[in-house]
């Protein structure tokens, strides 16, 4: 009986199938389609690198089914744009069906051919449609930017892939004429020097970075008006504030007289802003950081391992882990800086500032405890955790840390002596103009006037905006301006 039931079902299905009519598509020349946008615009795109994908919706708002007789790029296969319709990539499509009151997606990308221009240049095309003799179009526009491409071509052992961009005894200059786009790691070899001049834009592909090998040297020489910028290689607006787009600036030990310097720089949207570590031998020269912003990293802003660092007029902000992890021992002096960690892209379980003195030797695998010294002057350390300061010291070596005239968010203020803290404020909201991105001080900030004048002399007489701190400096990277704040030297 069951066998006959299946036979009946199959017969009925075949009857219904034979009775079903193919859908009709109108050839009425008064019918048109509409678009979600009349112009598809791409932000600046590096030549030879494809853009992210934009999409266009094509609507059939009519009561009848229609066919797009022709849907094509005006530039044909010479176009720098490419389209995808119904999962098929190409330049020219025919008889694209859209049912009544329905729509389709068209996906669009652009890959721009290089030329000899240094400044961004404009490229365009049109998406042409023919619906029953009606010609319609959508404009496609983009800006292209030529660049210097650094593409990794070597790999040794467990190190990441790299390309040597400054070999031993070479001094190489990167200039602002064209941006630099790095795939893999750009490596400064031992006894080599890379100088990055003012206004230079350095873009890193996913997982890429800049690496100064043992006794190589990095000199970043931006100016207040033209800082050097380190960032990801996606230029669309969406990526302006997306962390984790690239890996890190990785600095191994410097040799005496040839320390690393980073002046007037912006380091943003990576995994670790700066990693400075002893690797093969003792570090013989400090890393000096001045007038620099390190912002929006999924890992850490600064990660140091048995190093010597001097930092001034700096901002470290919004990191998914520590803003500054100073580990393995070393010597550190931070003056007139702001650490503001209001990371909100995931749960942060670590404080902004960490000290420890245990060094894990990468060559023999053993852990050693070293002396640790830290001094912080006229600074702010604040964020959205209850305690933004932690230490983890192994007993034995000398461990000294001193906070002077600093506003600090911490739970340990009652358990430590004034040897550690002098003229400091604890757990008072610094009242930034905007805690997510603007760390100038608002009118009622308790950090106003907190600083000690003896720490703000010489180059520190002027804040990160170039404002004279006078004889009553504030804590942090920015001096409060009563009648408005200074941006690039102008009162706003």
Summarize the structure.
The protein is mainly beta and 492 residues long.
Structure description:
Helix content is 4%, strand content 48%. It has a 24-stranded parallel beta sheet that branches. It is elongated. The protein folds into two domains: 34-145, Immunoglobulins (Immunoglobulin-like, Sandwich); 148-491. It is built from one helix and 40 strands. It is mainly beta and 492 residues long. Mean pLDDT is 92; it is low at 487-492.
Architecture blueprint of SSEs:
Layout: H1 2-19, E1 34-35, E2 39-46, E3 54-60, E4 66-73, E5 81-85, E6 88-90, E7 92-98, E8 102-110, E9 121-131, E10 134-145, E11 148-151, E12 162-166, E13 171-174, E14 180-183, E15 185-188, E16 193-197, E17 201-204, E18 209-212, E19 217-221, E20 228-232, E21 246-251, E22 261-268, E23 270-277, E24 287-297, E25 300-319, E26 324-341, E27 353-356, E28 358-360, E29 367-369, E30 372-377, E31 380-383, E32 389-392, E33 399-404, E34 407-408, E35 421-422, E36 425-426, E37 432-434, E38 438-441, E39 486-487, E40 490-491
Parallel strand pairs: 2-10, 11-14, 12-15, 13-16, 14-17, 15-18, 16-19, 17-20, 18-21, 19-22, 20-22, 21-23, 22-24, 23-25, 24-25, 25-26, 26-27, 26-30, 26-31, 27-32, 30-33, 31-34, 33-35, 34-36
Antiparallel strand pairs: 1-3, 3-8, 4-7, 4-9, 5-6, 5-8, 9-10, 28-29, 37-38, 39-40
């Amino acid at each position: 009986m069951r066998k006959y039931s299946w036979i009946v079902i199959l017969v009925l299905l075949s009857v219904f199938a034979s009775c079903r009519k193919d859908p009709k598509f109108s050839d009425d020349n008064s019918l048109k389609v509409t678009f979600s946008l009349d112009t598809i615009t791409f932000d600046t795109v590096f030549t030879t690198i494809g853009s992210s994908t934009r999409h266009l919706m094509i609507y059939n708002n009519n009561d009848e089914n229609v066919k797009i007789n022709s849907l094509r790029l005006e530039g044909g296969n010479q176009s720098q744009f490419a389209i995808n319709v119904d999962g098929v990539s190409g330049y020219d499509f025919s008889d694209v069906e859209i049912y009544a009151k329905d729509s389709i997606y068209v996906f669009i990308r652009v890959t721009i051919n290089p030329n000899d221009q240094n400044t961004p240049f404009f490229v365009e095309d049109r998406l042409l449609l023919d619906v029953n003799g009606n010609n319609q179009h959508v404009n496609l526009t983009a800006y292209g930017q030529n660049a210097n491409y650094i593409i990794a071509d070597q790999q040794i052992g467990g190190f990441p892939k790299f390309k040597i961009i400054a070999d031993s005894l070479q001094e190489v200059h990167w200039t602002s004429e064209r941006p630099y786009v790095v795939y893999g790691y750009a490596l400064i070899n031992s006894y080599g020097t890379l100088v990055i001049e003012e206004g230079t834009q350095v873009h890193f592909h996913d997982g890429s970075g800049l690496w100064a090998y043992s006794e190589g040297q990095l000199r970043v020489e931006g100016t207040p008006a033209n800082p050097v910028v380190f960032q990801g290689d996606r230029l669309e607006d969406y990526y302006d504030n997306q962390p984790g787009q690239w890996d890190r600036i990785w600095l191994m030990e410097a040799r005496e007289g040839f320390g690393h310097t980073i002046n007037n720089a912006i380091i943003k949207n990576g995994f670790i802003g700066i990693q400075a570590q002893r690797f093969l031998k003792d570090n013989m020269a400090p890393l000096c950081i001045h007038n620099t912003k390190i912002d929006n990293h999924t890992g850490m802003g600064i990660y140091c391992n048995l190093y010597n660092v001097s930092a001034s007029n700096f901002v470290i902000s919004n990191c998914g882990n520590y803003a500054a992890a100073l580990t393995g021992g070393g010597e550190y002096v931070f003056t007139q800086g702001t650490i503001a960690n209001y990371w909100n892209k995931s749960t942060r379980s670590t404080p902004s500032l960490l000290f420890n003195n245990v060094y894990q030797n990468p060559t023999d695998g053993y852990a050693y405890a070293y002396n640790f010294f830290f001094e912080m002057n006229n600074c702010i350390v604040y964020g959205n955790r209850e305690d933004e300061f932690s230490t983890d010291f192994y007993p034995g070596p000398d461990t000294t840390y001193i906070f002077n005239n600093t506003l600090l968010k911490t739970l340990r203020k009652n358990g430590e002596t004034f040897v550690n803290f002098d003229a400091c404020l604890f757990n008072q909201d610094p009242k930034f103009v905007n805690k997510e991105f603007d760390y100038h001080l608002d009118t009622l900030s308790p950090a106003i006037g907190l600083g000690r004048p003896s720490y703000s002399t010489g180059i520190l007489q002027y804040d990160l905006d170039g404002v004279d701190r006078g004889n009553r400096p504030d804590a942090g990277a920015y001096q409060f301006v009563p009648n408005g704040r200074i941006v690039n030297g102008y009162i706003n």
